């Protein structure tokens, strides 16, 4: 294990590209205003009413995707299967593919687990009442560290997981990023459909998960894993076998 961390440290030090100019102040300003406007304009109507039965049923069918448990187990499986393949396979190409899969598992595990822990800490510290208690407390009721799930609405943990997962795949496979963004929005909004969260909870969760995936990708890129840093410092997914796109390549 000590050798593993030493290897990562050497990889980090070899990277000569600085941190990217993410303009995080502007992004944070936009996100905060979007969340506040959503809270003021949309949360009260959602809390005062219930979604139509077909919409609620659709939400109940899809909302389980945001449960982090199965995504964590899948990422662990990817990591260990990739490591096993790296040890057992014979050809250099297949070993490289197995190693690539193992690092995808490590990346997904890191971003989903850590973003989920952060979301859970924030929701307990903020203590916002869930929509089911709208008529008793309204949309601006906060009871920090109450220890009760009814006061853990902001941000949405499911939406954080969804945002982290699909942002990770949008970074790994940018060609399909529009489809990933659409899936993330739909799956995150199922928390509103089932009455578990307000729209502002979902928006904050999506932003939190997405930003965590981006920052984790930058760390991986600095270590030379899965991503490389563009001249401006932005993480770009590595091509496993870039030579395959050259004319005449078999």
Automatic annotation (TrEMBL):
Compartment(s) where it occurs, according to its Swiss-Prot or TrEMBL record: Cell membrane
Membrane-spanning parts: 21-42, 62-80, 100-122, 154-173, 178-196, 202-221
Tree of life domain: Bacteria
One Gene Ontology cellular component: plasma membrane
Membrane topology, record value: Multi-pass membrane protein
PANTHER family: DECAPRENYLPHOSPHORYL-5-PHOSPHORIBOSE PHOSPHATASE RV3807C-RELATED, SPHINGOSINE-1-PHOSPHATE PHOSPHOHYDROLASE
Protein's UniProt name: Membrane-associated phospholipid phosphatase
Organism name: Rhizobium pisi
High-level lineage: Bacteria, Pseudomonadati, Pseudomonadota, Alphaproteobacteria, Hyphomicrobiales
């Amino acid at each position: 294990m000590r050798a593993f961390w030493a290897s990562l440290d050497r990889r980090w030090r070899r990277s000569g590209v600085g941190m990217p100019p993410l303009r995080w102040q502007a992004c944070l300003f936009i996100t905060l205003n979007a969340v506040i406007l959503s809270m003021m304009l949309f949360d009260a109507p959602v809390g005062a009413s219930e979604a139509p039965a077909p919409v609620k049923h659709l939400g109940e069918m899809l909302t389980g995707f945001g449960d982090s448990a199965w995504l964590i187990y899948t990422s662990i499986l990817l990591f260990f299967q990739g490591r096993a393949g790296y040890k057992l396979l014979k050809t250099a190409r297949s070993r490289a593919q197995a190693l690539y899969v193992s690092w995808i598992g490590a990346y997904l595990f890191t971003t989903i687990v850590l973003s989920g822990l952060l979301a859970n800490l924030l929701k307990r510290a903020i203590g916002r009442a869930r929509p089911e208690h709208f008529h008793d407390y309204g949309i601006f009721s906060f009871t920090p560290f109450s220890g009760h799930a009814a006061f853990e609405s902001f941000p949405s943990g499911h939406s954080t997981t969804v945002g982290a997962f699909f942002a990770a795949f949008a970074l790994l496979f940018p060609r399909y990023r529009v489809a990933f963004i659409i899936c993330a929005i739909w799956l995150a909004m199922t928390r509103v459909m089932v009455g578990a969260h307000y729209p502002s909870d979902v928006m904050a969760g999506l932003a939190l998960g997405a930003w965590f995936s981006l920052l984790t990708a930058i760390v991986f890129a600095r270590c030379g894993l899965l991503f490389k840093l563009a001249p401006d410092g932005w993480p770009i997914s590595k091509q496993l076998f870039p030579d395959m796109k050259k004319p005449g390549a078999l």
